Amino acid sequence: MENIIEIKDFCAPQLDVYARLTEAQLLNKDRPEDGMFIAESPKVIMRALDAGYEPVSMLAEDRHVNEEVKAVMERCPGIPVYTAPFEVLAQLTGYKLTRGMLCAMRRKPLLSVRDVCKHARRIAILENVMNPTNVGAIFRSAAALYMDGILLTPGCSNPLYRRAIRVSMGTVFQIPWTFLGEEEAGPWPEGGMAYLRKLGFGTASMALHDESVDLGDRRLKEERKLAVILGTEGEGLSDGTIAVSDYTIKIPMSHEVDSLNVAAASAVAFWELGKGRGRNHE
Fold first, then answer.
1. Which residues contact 275 (CB under 8 A, 6 or more apart)?
2. pLDDT, tens digit (0-9, with 9 covering 90-100), for 223-271
3. Residue 5 forms beta bridges with which residues?
4. What is the pLDDT of residues 29-80, one digit of tens each?
5. Which residue in 79, 85, 44, 66 sits closest to 170, CA to CA?
């Protein structure tokens, strides 16, 4: 293929986007229209392409141009594909986890909160979840367990950070999401919560609290539209968020364990609240 370009020097400028740009530089807050992200592995790249993301360039180890990699290349004619030997790419942090291919892709404009919620019945809200691994794991659980969308407060890690994409296995490209911006939804939590109620959602904060109800409470199942709110690692949800929520919910546990990691708790909550939606899920 004429668009394959061999790289022999790790300092080659073509590798800058993969090897030397930070997540902040890729995000490019000052010029979001020029923002990019890195997707890893043919499967994840295919999911991004299916979701309409535009590829900029690709990088593969020269000995790993296999059938999966070729399928991605064939889908993106004219996009430069850089290849390099293992000894060059061994200097690239995390390369062993790429499963044969990296792809630099352009970000798309964020959806509005209204668009994310338009056809949704169950959504997740992440409040200041800062670890990209947790964000990616929550997205994977949300996509698998019948959540219809995800909203993030501005303090959350970006779902298109490389580690979040990797952990999510590309489900960040399959489930609608956006940030709760003040211009549309108002300040979080009071303004954002009021906006969600205007859109028809009840709100349920996951927290250990004297007034918490069990996750299986029938009132939660009876809510036509429900937003499940999960808090930051360690500290959990803010008191202000809990105070203005319609419900405070908890997962019943044994052996005097008081809480789960936020990603594990999300999977339990999504499963319980999504029960019965698999067969008729829209």
1. none
2. 999 999 999 877 889 999 999 999 999 876 677 666 678 999 899 999 9
3. 82
4. 889 889 999 999 899 999 999 999 999 999 988 766 678 888 898 999 999 9
5. 44
Q: What's the DSSP call for residue 95?
A: G
- How far is 220 from 10, CA to CA, in rounded Å? 54
Task: Find the helix or strand (DSSP H, E) in which 178 lies.
Answer: strand 177-179
What amino acid occupies position 85? P
pLDDT value for 96: 59
Nearest Cα neighbor of 77 from 61, 62, 58 is: 58
Q: In the 8-state DSSP scheme, what is residue 245?
A: S
Q: Measured between alpha carbons, how far is 220 from 34 in angstroms, rounded to an integer?
A: 42
Question: In angstroms, rounded to a whole number, what is the distance separating the alpha carbons of residues 169 and 97?
Answer: 12
Element (H, E) at 56: strand 54-61
The whole-angstrom separation of Cα 15 and Cα 81 is 11
Max Cα-Cα span within the chain? 66
Amino acid at 113: V
